């Protein structure tokens, strides 16, 4: 049809699948869009950076990963400097955060000797990119497809930046018949459309803030995120270690449709470009915190990314980085700091949560 965007390869495949087998859940749709082995977004696109679809904090400035590197070394020491531990990053993107973190961490040779680095990444293309970024790093990464592949035999120190927002969520819609699962099906013209499926949400899964919602309200649940948080929490509670979760999200479970597609730095309709647009959902920090705590771990925060970075000395480090440099470089560093920590940029929307063994309160969560 003239004027219509050509459909993506994944859209054509999903339509055939739905025509044959019926509507799929929003979680299945998200999973296909991001992780389909042939046509998923992270399998084929080069998503990050100015030429991609979005820019993440480690791609804004080296200061981000460097501060996290310093945090990891500090918390490892607070934990009694265990002689063997797993250093793990799920969803490492281009590998920039870990490269910057290791540049600082390598100053502590005991930390480096004790660390075994594993990157959890499902995309072969991104694994290649990460290995390339870390080619000169002091630790050679191992790769895993999920956390369960990492032996549970030592403390876990983990950092997850913009990882949980990429995990599939389910959506439920309030109908006259209670909360029912939102599905992706086909309209009369054979195009992808949202619909309502038969599955209903059990009342214990409906948070208090959703009890008086109006018909048509959307409620999201995130069983995969919760399961991953539980497994991280259990390891930290029993073996020790710490995790930092950094992401954009909301603090209290409440109704709201947060599923969003981004294509070349602009919002895009969710169903229009499967596999070619990035697809994410805001992270439910209340649910995530609950999963970590139920697993026996201690949770610090969430605090805003701005407070976290400034609490770790962002301004001082930016000053050191700019000292003696030409004015235009100092100006760029100032702009990067504003972007990472400013309230109108990433500083307030992004939240940071720290997970530790009981009794360990790392800075800047300790005040
Ligand atoms: N942390 C990086 C990239 C964030 S994008 C940064 O800050 O720049 C999300 C990352 O999660 C990508 O590397 C993507 O391939 C990975 N990812 C998405 N779903 C995943 C899954 N189920 N398991 C492991 N990695 C996943």
Average pLDDT across residues? Answer: 95
* Residue share in helix: 25-40%
Task: Give the percentage of residues in beta strands.
Answer: 15-25%
Largest sheet: 8 strands, mixed
What is the straight-line distance between the termini?
61 Å
Number of helices: 14
Order of helices and strands: HEHHHHEHHEHEEEEEEHEEEEEHEHHHHE
Secondary structural class: alpha/beta
| Molecules bound to protein | S-adenosyl-L-homocysteine
Give the radius of gyration. Answer: 21 Å
C-alpha geometry: globular
Give a count of the beta strands, DSSP E runs of length 2 or more: 16
Low-confidence stretches: none
Structural summary, described in words:
By secondary structure, this protein is an alpha/beta fold. The chain contains 14 helices and 16 strands. Strands 2, 3, 4, 5, 10, 14, 15 and 16 form an 8-stranded mixed sheet that branches. Helix 5 crosses helix 6 (96-105), helix 9 packs parallel to helix 10 (285-294) and helix 12 packs antiparallel against helix 13. The radius of gyration is 21 Å and the shape is globular. S-adenosyl-L-homocysteine is lined by residues 34-35, 42, 48, 56, 58-59, 90-93, 97, 120-123, 126, 161-163, 166-167.
């Amino acid at each position: 049809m003239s004027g219509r965007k050509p459909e993506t390869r994944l859209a054509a495949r999903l339509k055939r699948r739905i025509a044959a087998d019926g509507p799929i859940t929003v979680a299945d749709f998200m999973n296909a869009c991001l992780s389909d082995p042939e046509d998923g977004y992270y399998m084929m696109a080069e998503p990050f950076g100015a030429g991609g679809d979005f820019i993440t904090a480690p791609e804004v400035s080296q200061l981000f990963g460097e501060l996290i590197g310093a945090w990891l070394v500090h918390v490892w020491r607070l934990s009694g400097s265990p002689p063997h531990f797993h250093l793990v990053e799920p969803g490492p993107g281009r590998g920039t955060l870990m490269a910057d973190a290791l540049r600082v961490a390598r100053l502590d040779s005991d930390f480096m000797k004790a660390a075994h680095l594993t990157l959890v990444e499902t995309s072969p293309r991104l694994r290649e990119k990460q290995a390339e970024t870390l080619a000169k790093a002091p630790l050679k990464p191992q790769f895993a497809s999920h956390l369960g592949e990492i032996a549970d035999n030592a403390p876990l120190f983990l950092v997850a930046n913009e990882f949980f927002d990429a995990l599939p969520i389910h959506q439920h819609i309030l109908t006259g018949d209670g909360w029912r699962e939102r599905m992706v099906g086909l309209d009369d013209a054979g195009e992808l459309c949202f619909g309502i499926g038969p599955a209903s949400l059990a009342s214990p899964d409906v948070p208090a803030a959703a009890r008086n919602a109006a018909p048509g309200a959307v409620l999201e649940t995130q069983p995969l995120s919760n399961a991953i948080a539980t497994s991280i929490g259990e390891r930290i509670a029993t073996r020790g270690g710490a995790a930092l979760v950094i992401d954009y999200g909301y603090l209290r479970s409440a109704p709201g449709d947060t599923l969003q597609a981004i294509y070349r730095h602009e919002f895009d309709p969710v169903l229009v470009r499967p596999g070619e647009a990035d697809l994410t959902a805001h992270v439910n920090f209340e649910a995530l915190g609950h999963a970590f705590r139920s697993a026996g771990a201690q949770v610090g925060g969430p605090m805003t990314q701005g407070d976290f970075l400034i609490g770790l000395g962002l301004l001082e480090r930016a000053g050191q980085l700019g000292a003696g440099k030409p004015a235009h470089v100092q100006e760029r560093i100032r702009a990067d700091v504003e972007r990472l920590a400013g309230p109108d940029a990433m500083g307030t929307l992004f939240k940071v949560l720290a997970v530790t063994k009981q009794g360990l309160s790392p800075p800047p969560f300790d005040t």
